[in-house]
Specification:
Four copies of one chain form a homotetramer. Chain A is of the alpha+beta class. Chain A is built from four helices and five strands; from the N terminus they run βααββββαα. The model of chain A has no long low-confidence stretch (mean pLDDT about 95).
């Protein structure tokens, strides 16, 4: 299952090179995770309320073509892998109008408790685990 | 004429106080200006292409209630005043779900050329001037 | 008492107008508050550890001249007013090299507990109150 | 040759997890590149004035331990590889006080002209090429 989130590029997201600053893509990936969580009826704010956090352990991004102020970008997201304690997502950013691929990326996460210690999500919060794991084809 | 832009609060927009960081409201105001420009068929990226920039000369914001991750906020925007060289906008931020007023703000701008020197917009770009001025009731 | 914090302008702080984005000044003001707290031996992270937060209730900024990538800017900060529950600071941003005034600003805050309810700081945390109040000339 | 840049963690850089948001590390890497350029007497703003830009083509980051508001972090940077058109840097982020490694990262760049088309830096701007290439041990 893939989920697509559309984002209107903000002026503040550009830099003096005239393109979106590279640090912004990680924020867009996160916004896509937020929408993905709503889609599968397990919103991330609900996870946090249940005491489950999802910090990153790694991030990668390839920048293929720039995004510009005024563009609408589409962020495709899907779960690549899920273990009882870890979580791996992949992303594709395209220009919504032209369909051109702008960037690809990935994030790896660990499920933790509020003290940011790893938890076995499958055992302790199977409803969260299954909501995400069931999206893998 | 008022225009409302809805924004989904991003995780990156929160700080360790657990609320949206105050610097983010200026970015939301700007996102609302972007949508307002499209609404009146004079998008800001089009203004820049015609050589007209709109830097801020002042910003104010009152923070009434916090916004949280997961909220949808509505930004109402309207033009308060317009002279041939200056531009004044006001903003109201509400929680879309509860209708509660979260913040109010204002920005003052000067119309400039690409070298950021003030221009008489009414004289040099009447089509841009009128698009914005006509929204004042 | 005034305290000056020097900041090297980051590339990510610029926008496609080629200048520092206006939302960044609020972040610089906050960085200046951090350094001010250390100077008076009452760092803000220490205040938070004691259960005292300092959310903003208002922000204003006037933008006089742009700041550019590569600039060093100096943020002067001083306490304008302090009551048992409220706190008002003012800021001046100058280009460190040329001495030119780039921006001025102000922030108003309320002292709160961890649940963000106002507290009488003078009564409940006189050591914090005095550290800040004693800087007013 | 390694160069270390110290950065005081800003409050705005934290998120509601109580730690520095992962998107911030790319901004710190960039701040380290800025200081590195000054160190080798080829500041990046000077490169841009000569018509040479340095957009990213990829970014990776591993997050080992969190950084917190109030921390001073040290960013070590070094050039891993340089070809006539490409540039590869690596980074280590440590807590300055404890010496603990917080994150590692890498960025790949392409040297371009102002239209963001790749240029042969070695041929067209040997003084810039050599300034960076000479730092490789």
């Amino acid at each position: 299952m893939k989920r697509t989130t559309d984002i209107i590029v903000r002026y503040a997201e550009t830099d003096q090179m005239g393109i979106v600053h590279h640090s912004v893509y990680a924020i867009w990936f996160e916004a896509a995770r937020t929408e993905f969580g709503k889609e599968i009826r397990m919103p991330y704010d609900e996870c946090e309320k249940r005491g489950v956090l999802l910090p990153l352990i790694s991030l990668e991004c390839k920048f293929i073509k720039p995004a510009y102020y005024g563009d609408v970008v589409s962020i495709k997201i899907f779960v690549e892998k899920m273990t009882p304690v870890r979580f791996r997502l992949k992303y594709e950013v395209t220009n919504k109008n032209s369909g051109e691929l702008l960037a690809t990326g990935g994030t790896s996460h660990v499920w933790t408790n509020k003290e940011r210690r790893p938890v076995n999500l499958k055992k302790n919060h199977p409803e969260i685990f299954n909501a995400y794991a069931n999206t893998i084809e």
